[in-house]
Design brief:
It contains 15 helices and 12 strands. It has 418 residues and is α+β, with helices and mostly antiparallel strands. A 5-stranded mixed beta sheet has the order 5-6-1-7-8. Strand 5 (94-99) and strand 6 form a beta hairpin. The radius of gyration is 24 Å and the shape is globular.
Length: 418
């Protein structure tokens, strides 16, 4: 038996925790640079707002309807997430952390009474952290995730669903109401391909013959199909570590950037992040693309969005090499006098790092510096060790005009009682 504990509207719930006056009020949290709505309380959803809406387009409606808006406060969310995971460590035989607001419980004995224990988990997490959660149980991770989805969506279940304790009629009804792309392991693109052959719901997907799935789609999707029928064969790593075809790192700036030096700094940081992901997947890239853009909504200047691509002779995963190439490509596309709104990099033509033939004529053997860099940052925290080009003042950093205090991680921002 597996369980999935998922925090409800996690970012918005974190914002409410230190603001009792917001309980029962509509709250939304914005993405990086105050771009889109990424977390909404049920009260905000009831007003018609949805995940992914562009903030500047709905700003007036949010103000008119009295919705409280916050910029993302990742230090606060990460700390509260750790508190939730600490409690779950003592309640699950084995905990598999899936994301900042989700954890699987594994090795759960069949003798457990799932629904009562799920309520105990729910109550303890809420009592000790103030964060509301939903708990789903199932014979597979996919079914546990599906049970959790309905635990959150249907008030009748009161936040806990055990899939194995549903009647066949109830299970079939929920499967027929579940869109295919809401099933763990089925992404948006695969769901569109499935829709072309008449598969729109989880129930439709279960009726497809396994041989048809294996012949057209990937192995992970075939495992998802088996999981829906109750055969446990999918691991968290199967979803997290699917080999990417390309790695993109980009971001809009908090303020317009004209300086070439600041663009170099931002691109150096982006390519370092992309290279870190590359090494995580044990890949190397043979192609690097760089782009910079002015805002398409700025009427004061013509839209300018150049890009340049460089092909490496030998695939690499070295942040230093990528940073040097990035500077060269920026030299080719940068135009002074422009106010740039966004920049980004893409690593392409990815290959297995273990299958790359090293350069026999290199002046020195391949360095282990990058793996050492990754281990240090994994142990002591992100960006504890970075390239020197990332150390300058980040005048271009993202906009966070409505960020709440870091109540639990900064002494100067601790909540005070008056």
């Amino acid at each position: 038996m597996y369980a999935l504990c998922d925090c409800n509207s996690f970012y918005a719930s974190c914002e409410r925790l230190f603001r009792p006056d917001l309980h029962g009020k509509p709250v939304v949290v914005l993405s990086n640079n105050d771009g889109c709505l990424i977390a909404l309380t049920p009260e905000a959803k009831a007003l018609g707002f949805k995940m992914g809406m562009v903030y500047f387009k709905v700003k007036k409606d949010l103000e008119r309807l009295g919705v409280f808006v916050f910029s993302s406060n990742y230090p606060l969310y990460a700390d509260l997430s750790n508190r939730v995971k600490t409690i779950l460590d003592g309640m699950f035989p084995v905990q598999e952390i899936y994301s900042i607001d989700e954890s699987f419980g594994t090795h759960i004995p069949d003798s457990w009474q799932c629904e009562p224990y799920g309520r105990e988990i729910k109550n303890r997490v809420e009592q000790h952290t103030g964060i509301p959660v939903a708990v789903g149980f199932g014979a597979t991770r996919t079914l546990a995730k599906l049970a959790n989805r309905w635990a959150k969506k249907t008030q009748w279940f009161e936040g806990v669903v055990s899939w194995s304790e549903l009647s066949p009629h109830q299970a079939q009804m929920l499967l027929k109401k579940t869109p295919a792309d809401d099933v763990w392991g089925i992404g948006y693109r695969i769901a569109r391909r499935l829709e072309e052959v008449g598969v729109k719901t989880a129930w439709d997907f279960m009726q497809v013959q396994p041989r048809d799935i294996r012949g057209v789609f990937n192995v992970t999707l075939a495992k998802t199909h088996r999981e829906l029928w109750g055969e446990s064969c999918l691991r968290v790593e199967d979803i997290e570590n699917q080999t990417p075809k390309q790695i993109v790192s980009s971001r809009s700036f908090g303020a317009r950037v004209e300086s070439k030096l600041l663009l170099q700094q931002s691109l150096s940081q982006y390519v370092s992040r992309a290279a870190e992901k590359l090494r995580k997947h044990q890949l190397k890239a043979q192609q690097l693309s760089v782009w910079i853009r002015t805002s398409p909504f700025d009427q004061s200047q013509p839209y300018y969005a150049p890009a340049q691509t460089y092909s490496l002779a030998i695939p690499s995963d070295d942040s230093r090499e990528f940073a040097a190439i990035t500077r060269q490509l920026l030299d080719r596309i940068y135009k002074p006098g422009k106010e740039y709104h966004k920049a980004g990099v893409m690593l392409g033509e990815l290959v297995d790092a273990h299958r790359v033939q090293p350069d026999l004529f290199a002046s020195r053997p391949e360095s282990t510096l990058m793996s050492t860099l990754d281990r240090i940052n994994q142990r002591y925290g992100k960006r504890k060790m970075v390239l020197g080009s990332n150390l300058r003042d980040q005048q271009w950093k993202m906009r966070q005009n409505m960020r709440s205090p870091s109540y639990t991680t900064q002494w100067k921002e601790l909540a005070s009682v008056r």
